[in-house]
Amino acid sequence: MKEQRNDKERLEKLNQEYHQMRMTQEQVTEMKHRIKEAKTVKNKKHRSGIVKCSFAAAAALSVLILLPNTSADVAYAMSSLPLVGKLVEVVTFRNYQYESDRQNADIQVPELVAGNQTESPAGDSVNQAIEQVNQEIQTITDQIISEFEKNRSDQEGYQDVVVKSEILTTTEQYFTLKLICYQGAGSGAEWDYFYTIDLTTGQRLQLKDLFTDGSDYITPISENIKTQMREQMAKDEMVHYWVDETDIPEWNFQAITDETSFYINADGNIVICFNEGDVAPMYMGCVEFVIPDSVVSGIMK
Fold first, then answer.
1. How many Cβ atoms sit within 10 Å of the Cβ of residue 2?
2. 123: confidence class by pLDDT, cuts 50, 70, 90
C-alpha cells in the first residue's frame, strides 16, 4: 500500500510538471479560432485528405512563442509506473508547440504503455501490438513535424497543424486509440488513424477479423451506409454525401474495402470511418456510420 501511495504521488507530480509545459488558455483559444475559420472554407471538388502546405516565400516570421517541448524523460517516468486495473494506457510521449503570427503547431504525440498484463491471456502479443502502434504513430507524427518545420523555415504562407489523440474504446476485449491530425493552410483538412487491439488475442484488428471466413460483409455494410447517407440528407439539407450523384457519378460511394477505417464502440457496434473528402465534400469533415447489429448478424465471429 505504501509503495502504491508513493507511486501515485510520483505520478501526480510528473503529471503537474508535464501540464506546466502547455500553451496558455489565450493561445489555445486563438488556435481554435484559427482552425474554425480555416474549416469554414468549403471545397466540394477538393477530395484530397491532406492539404499540402506549399506557398510562395513570405516575409520573415515574427515569432511570439517557440516551445518545441520534448518531454521524453517525463513520459518515460510516467509510463514506467504501475497502471492498476488497465491493460493499455496512453501517455503523451512528446509535446511539440509553436506559435507565431503566421504559423502554429500543437502536436501531442501519444504513446501506448502496457498495464497489468497478468490480467491478459495474451500479454506478450499485446506488448508486440503496442510496440507496433507506437512505431506507426512515431513515423506519422515525425513526418508531420518535419513538414511543418520545413515550411516554417521556408517561410511558406500560413499553416496550422494540430495532432491529438482520443481513447475511443477500452473494454475487457478491445482497446481503440484514435489519432487525429489537422492541417490548415487557407482551407483545412482533418484525417484520422484508428488503432484497435484485441486484448484477448493481442491481435491488431482488421475489419475482416470480425467476420466468419468467406462471409460477405462488404455488401451489407456498404448498402447500410448508403441508406444512412440518404436518410441524413433527407432530414438536413446541409448534409451532403456523394451517393446517387448524376452529374459526376464517378464520385459516388460504392463500397467499403478491407482497408476502410473502423472501430468498435462501447456498445459493441462496428463504426465505419471516413476522412474528409472521402465520401462527402470537405465541409462535412470526417464522418462515421454506426452499423446496426441486424446488418451483420449471422456473419460475425
1. 6
2. confident
pLDDT computed for residue 120 by the predictor: 55
CA 172 to mean position of chain CA atoms: 22
Convert 8-76 into a string of H (helix), E (strand) and C (coil).
HHHHHHHHHHHHHCCCCHHHHHHHHHHHHHHHCCCCCCCCCCCCCCCCCECCCCCEEEEECCCCHHHHH
**Nine cell digits for residue 176:** 481503440
Secondary structure (3-state) at 203: strand
pLDDT at position 187, please? 74
Strand order in the sheet with 159-170: 63-67, 88-100, 103-114, 159-170, 174-185, 187-198, 203-204
Task: Tell me the Cα Rg of the chain.
Answer: 21
Cell of 141: 507524427
pLDDT, position 84: 35
Contact (Cβ atoms closer than 8 angstroms) between residue 116 and residue 84: yes
**Per-residue burial over 108-132, b = 16 or more CB atoms within 10 Å of its CB, e = otherwise:** bbbbbbbbebeebebbebbbebbee
Instruction: Give the residue carrying C-alpha cell 475511443.
Output: 168
Q: Which residues pair with 211 in a beta bridge?
A: 300
Ramachandran angles phi, psi of 100, nearest 5°:
-140, -175
Cα separation of 269 and 286, whole Å?
19
For the record, the C-alpha cell of 56 comes out as 510562395
Contact 251/242 with Cβ under 8 angstroms? yes
Residue entry with cell 491478459: 120
Q: Whose grid coordinates read 504521488?
A: 9
Lowest mean pLDDT among 54-68, 106-120, 182-196: 54-68
* Ranges assigned E (strand) in 171-278: 174-185, 187-198, 203-204, 261-264, 270-274
φ/ψ of 169, rounded to 5, equals -140, 135
Does 65 have pLDDT greater than 90? no
Quote the pTM value: 0.70
